Amino acid sequence: MSRIHLLPEEVASQVAAGEVVERPASVVKELVENSLDAKSTRIEVAIKRGGSSQIVVVDDGIGMDRDDALLCLERNATSKIRSGEDLSHILTLGFRGEALPSIASVSRFRLSTREREALAGTEVLVNGGRIETVRDGGEAPGTQIEVRSLFYNLPARRKFLRSENTEASHVEHHLQLQAIGHPEVGFVYVRDERLVFQLAPARHLRDRIRDLCGAQLVEQLVELPELSFEGLKLRGFIGKPGVSRSTRAQQYVFVNGRAVENSTVNFGLREGYHTALMKGQHPVTFLFIDMDPAAVDVNVHPAKREVRFRDPGHLREAIVESVKTALESTRTDWSNAFTMADGGFRKPEGKAAPASKISSPAPDPAPRVESVQAEMEIPSAPVTLRHDWSALPLQNPPPATPPKPVETSVTPPAASIKSPKSEIQNFKILGVLGKLYVLMENAEGLVLVDQHAAHERILFEQLRRRMETQDVPAQRLLMPLTITVTPHDADWITRNVETLHKMGIGIEPFGSGTFMIDTLPQFMRASDSLQLIRDIIEELRETSKTTSKLRLGEDVIAKTVCRAAVKANDYLREPELVRLIQDLLACELPYCCPHGRPTMIQMSYGELEKKFGRKV
Hints:
Blueprint: H1 9-20, H2 24-37, E1 42-48, E2 54-59, H3 66-71, H4 99-105, E3 108-114, E4 121-127, E5 130-137, E6 142-148, H5 155-159, H6 164-181, E7 186-191, E8 194-199, H7 205-213, H8 215-219, E9 221-223, E10 227-228, E11 233-239, E12 244-245, E13 251-255, E14 258-259, H9 263-273, E15 282-283, E16 285-290, E17 296-297, E18 308-309, H10 312-337, E19 339-341, E20 344-348, E21 357-360, H11 369-373, E22 406-409, E23 424-427, E24 431-433, E25 437-442, E26 445-450, H12 451-469, E27 474-484, H13 487-495, H14 497-502, E28 506-509, E29 514-521, H15 529-541, H16 554-564, H17 574-585, E30 600-604, H18 605-611
Parallel strand pairs: 1-7, 13-16
Antiparallel strand pairs: 1-2, 2-6, 3-4, 3-6, 4-5, 7-8, 9-11, 10-11, 11-16, 12-15, 13-14, 17-18, 19-20, 20-23, 21-22, 24-25, 25-26, 26-30, 27-29, 28-29
């Protein structure tokens, strides 16, 4: 007796629907994508009870005639592709021909459509995958689809739905994705007969982001330069250094207009930010990737969110370069805002705050910057912060016994004050708050600098630059270490021995799957070496080809300079503070420490006026 038999068409449709329709948000996603493919300029979405009771999607697209309206409900019926060769040239969002029949098989389904030139349209009623009624319709040109009682014939699937608020939030998320991906299209979203948002077509992506996410977020974004990388174009916006989230909730990535999730893109973004991003944080991203459709495979999963790239390395390189270029533009803005001159600062002519006085006791003596740096076990050409102070205005060193508080004027000396007609006005550092935060003033208002974080950034870049241009100082171990790895990792180590040697790690084969380590960089402790090697193996696989392999040891460098940098309560003289700020502004990324924490915080005059009630 045969044990294999064909499933009934109704059951087969329900099984296939499980891959496409997971929840109400999946229905909205598929229907909105069809509306976008139909060249709609306005899409309205209305749901009730989180979408489980009713979903209505209305568009003003090209519509369908009666034959197409009936044929679109058949499985694998599509107007997007004709042959297998077309799979390598997909430019539409939908193409599998599974969405509509899958949705209709697990709901009470109504389709009303009309072509723009037709006098009458077509209305089709489907109940659980069975067509019940086909008649003329009088709807406006375009397509209207109504989905009621989702999963009414699959009670087991219906039980897996979450609360109405949770399902509605998923629907709103998918709508926001499509609205950001297609700013030229107007969107209306209604939940339980309450208008959630109404978005007019936008001329620029920035306007759509402002409408959805608020003006405050837009001010924290920097636009990516529209660079071309051999047929690959990137555009969009990313968060400025310091603007990040603990999840990828605000990380929007689109490939040829399709919202996607891909690890290659994630690695490229993180590598582009590098030390401007704190560990465990994710950048705010609105990234659009335009590429040859033959270079990306979207036929990976029925939901079409997962894609594969033919050359992921090339894409990663492009993302890294684009992000680095955008962040460098923010570095120029910082340099313009904090320009040093004559031992103090200078700012563009504009609103100047009146001279004020501060009262503070003279700090206790503390180790100077050079003595702290001496703690770093790095031979020859030591990393140093101080230079020749003779050209800078000096102040007397602090006495051994702190005197009583005295008032210290922050008004610049007469010799440094220029004519009122001068385009540049000099002013000094205002003081140090809590023996940690350097208070400064610029054209925008008040600036606070964390001296520890600032010194970390300076030492980090100096040490990294030395590692990239010279041999890394290494020390030979008295007792060599051995590490045993998998065959795959052993092959990788064998091919990258030269890179590891440049990092100061002496490693040689020592039997099958075993390697001997006899040399380590001087700033690395032997107890950390085995885990470091394993971390390097994992990290280097995701590192782009043009990125310096010495970046793989930067976590160790960051920890080293953290111990060596000036600490809270360390007293710095005026010329040392001036040099600290000068060296910080000369860094590649002056606005954050190697761990991604900010080195500077700006408080504008507008913010100060609001806090003092001078401005609403």
